[in-house]
Write a structure and sequence with these properties.
The chain is globular and about 70 Å long. The protein has a six-stranded mixed beta sheet with strand order 5-6-7-3-8-9, sandwiched between helices. A four-stranded antiparallel beta sheet has the order 11-12-10-13, with helices on one face. Strands 2-1-4 form a three-stranded antiparallel beta sheet, with helices on one face. By secondary structure, the protein is α/β, with parallel strands linked by helices. The protein is built from eleven helices and 13 strands. Helix 3 (90-100) packs parallel to helix 5.
């Protein structure tokens, strides 16, 4: 079963949400990537039925989003916004959502504790959500979204506010859900996270899908555009002049903090091999890192400055 967008557009009056979206999303972890205003939230709201398409059709594993009763039996939705009933404990929040699914109190209690255990909040489950940290609130929302074992999980910026250990555990939970055959749809703006957790990625800009597939595959498709690399070194001026000897380097400039250089190259793999030669010749290179680990840099690869992503 798949999630299908068939020529879907959504307008808010004169404002474009998304336009002419055609997607077939298989089970597994799919990340929606883009800056604010790119259409990520609109795409998620269309999947959950919170907004209706202006034109086009959507099918979520065979269910139309305009059938919310059927849809939310198979779907869990974790927003990035706080929306907890006043005075509820973490357990009550998860338990109540399961009762609304029509479960018996006993079944709901069992599933609630199982979900709370998965997000490692058992010790805090009887505390009021109002006393939770931002990361704990994020985790209890995730518990609520997975408690009824949905076939589709829609997760809006689910890693925000999590410390590194909890973030790693949460990513493992996403993978567990995907391995049982679920769709896990994650929105994010951090490419290195997306590359680490995703089976595929959908990049959006100004309401359009501009690329889809694995991050590395997308980069291979646009290999004619330069890759950006930051090099931290002890002699940035000398390094810049030496780097310009490589015919595939199109730009090399001193980093604004004067502790290294920013390089653009059309052949990143060859460039890294040549850097080894410079190290052997005595230049002390401290670190080498891609400069395209945020989504805006990848947009420069894909659509250039005219994309209007702000």
């Amino acid at each position: 079963m798949q999630i299908v967008f068939d020529n879907v557009s959504r307008f808010y009056g004169e404002v474009l949400g998304v336009n002419r979206v055609n997607l077939t999303i298989p089970p597994g972890i799919t990340s929606l990537v883009g800056p604010n205003g790119s259409g990520k939230t609109t795409l998620m709201n269309l999947m959950t039925g919170l907004v209706r398409p202006t034109r086009g059709q959507i099918s979520v594993r065979g269910i139309a989003p305009n059938n919310p009763e059927a849809l939310f039996r198979i779907m869990g939705y974790c927003t990035q916004f706080d929306s907890f009933p006043r005075g509820y404990t973490g357990f009550q929040f998860v338990h109540a959502s399961l009762l609304l699914q029509g479960m018996s109190s006993k079944e709901a209690e069992s599933k609630a504790w199982r979900a709370i255990e998965k997000v490692n909040l058992v010790d805090a489950a009887k505390r009021k959500v109002a006393a939770y940290s931002k990361g704990m609130r994020q985790r209890i929302r995730l518990a609520q979204s997975i408690a009824h074992e949905p076939q589709v999980l829609i997760l809006d910026e689910p890693l925000n506010g999590l410390d590194p250990l909890v973030r790693s555990e949460t990513i493992a939970l996403f993978r567990e859900q995907a391995e049982r055959g679920a769709h896990v749809i994650v929105s994010s703006h951090v490419l290195h996270e997306v590359d680490m957790i995703s089976d595929q990625v959908i990049l959006l800009a100004n309401g359009y899908v501009v690329a889809e597939g694995a991050i590395r595959g997308v980069r291979e498709e646009i290999s004619d555009r330069p890759h950006q690399i930051v090099i931290r070194c002890d002699r940035p001026s000398e390094m810049a002049s030496r780097i310009f000897q490589f015919d595939h380097v199109v730009e090399a400039r001193i980093h604004p903090d004067f502790q290294g250089i920013l390089v653009k190259t059309t052949n990143a793999s060859h460039f890294h091999k040549l850097l080894n030669r410079l190290v052997m010749e005595g230049i002390n290179i401290e670190t080498i890192a891609p400069a395209d680990d945020d989504v805006n840099s990848l947009y420069e690869y894909l659509i250039g400055d005219e994309g209007g992503h702000k």
